[in-house]
Amino acid sequence: MTPTLTLPPKVTPRAFARLAEINSASGSPQALRIAVSGGGCSGFQYDIRLDEPASDDLVLEGEGQKVLVDPVSLPFLANATIDFSEELIGARFVIENPNASSSCGCGTSFSI
Questions:
Q1: Which helix (H) or strand (E) holds 13?
Q2: What's residue 91's pLDDT?
Q3: d(Cα 94, Cα 110) in Å, to the nearest integer?
Q4: What is the mean pLDDT of residues 58-63?
Q5: Percent of the chain surpassing pLDDT 90
Q6: Residue 62 pLDDT > 60
Q7: Which domains does the chain have, with CATH numbers?
Q8: Helix (H) or strand (E) holding 11
Q9: Average per-residue pLDDT in the chain?
Q10: In sequence order, which residues have a C-beta less than 8 Å from that of residue 57 and are 6 or more positions away?
Q11: Residue pLDDT, tens place only, 13-56
Q12: Which of 72, 80, 89, 105 is a Cys-bridge partner for 9, taking CB atoms 3.0 to 4.6 Å apart?
């Protein structure tokens, strides 16, 4: 069996473009932080917010924008894709996470 290669999460051009829109409307542009914490209805939950980089963050850059992942969250987000989705129910950053064995309907909670 071939070992699975663990890669950092990737950010789609659509997610970087939406972050650029948010930051262009803001007086002080910030990075988008993607973190994982315990809790939620499935055991883990995503924390997605604007934040300043920390010295130990993984910084993913594109289109002049930055997405941050802290070292504790990184293993939970290996090989994940960070995207932006616009649907009838609303628009939001979404994470397609191959590490999640299940997730809840809200899309912010998952289990491994």
A1: helix 13-24
A2: 86
A3: 12
A4: 94
A5: 53
A6: yes
A7: 10-111 (2.60.300.12)
A8: strand 10-11
A9: 84
A10: 33, 68, 69, 70, 71
A11: 999 999 999 999 887 889 999 998 876 555 778 899 999 999 99
A12: 80
3-class DSSP assignment, residue 38: strand
Contact (Cβ atoms closer than 8 angstroms) between residue 22 and residue 50: yes
Which tokens belong to 107? 């899309």
Cα–Cα dist 111/83, whole Å:
20
CA distance 55 to 61: 15
Q: End-to-end CA distance of the chain, in Å?
A: 22
Token pair 């699975």 in the structure block, residue? 4
Return the closest-CA partner of residue 73 out of 5, 9, 6.
9
Nearest in space to 8 (alpha carbons), one of 60, 72, 62, 85: 60
Phi first, then psi, for residue 40 (nearest 5°) are 75, 175
Question: Could you give the angle at the alpha carbon of 92 between the alpha carbons of 111 and 86, nearest 5°?
Answer: 120
Whole-structure pTM value: 0.81
Distance in angstroms (rounded) separating the CA atoms of residues 24 and 86: 19
- For residue 10, pLDDT over 60 is answered with yes
